[in-house]
Amino acid sequence: MKKILVSKCLLGINCRYKGDSCKNDAVCALSEKYEIIPICPEQDGGLPTPRDPAEIVNGRVISSAGRDVTAEYEKGARHALELAREHNVEFAVLKSKSPSCGCGTIYDGTFSGTLITGDGITAGLLKAMGFKVTDENSIK
Ligand code: SF4
Q1: pTM surpassing 0.90?
Q2: Rounded distance from Cα 4 to ligand 1 centre (Å)
């Protein structure tokens, strides 16, 4: 079976900053066709759950409390890349709009709910290293 990386919160695991999940049935159903390698880059980078939300501001990841959590986000991204390479994944399905997992659209860093074009730290690293990345909205 071919393998894919998937954001854990899309699989129903309570790893989001609020301590909940955002289970997506279409994404979960991909397990019928692929072996799923679950990742949560924010937890994998050492951040607790629940945690303060964060957004990307001028290339740094800053929590709503003003803490620079870039190092944790980058550590989680490197872990995702290691898994992607180790398992030779076909592609990744990551949670939209997240500062880690967002693919193509993220929040603008003002904590006002405003979206801009861009990638989360993990999605961006995976793309830069040649992996195909998409989000749950493209899975039907
Ligand atoms: Fe973890 Fe990514 Fe889901 Fe955030 S969006 S909770 S980093 S898997």
Answers
A1: yes
A2: 16
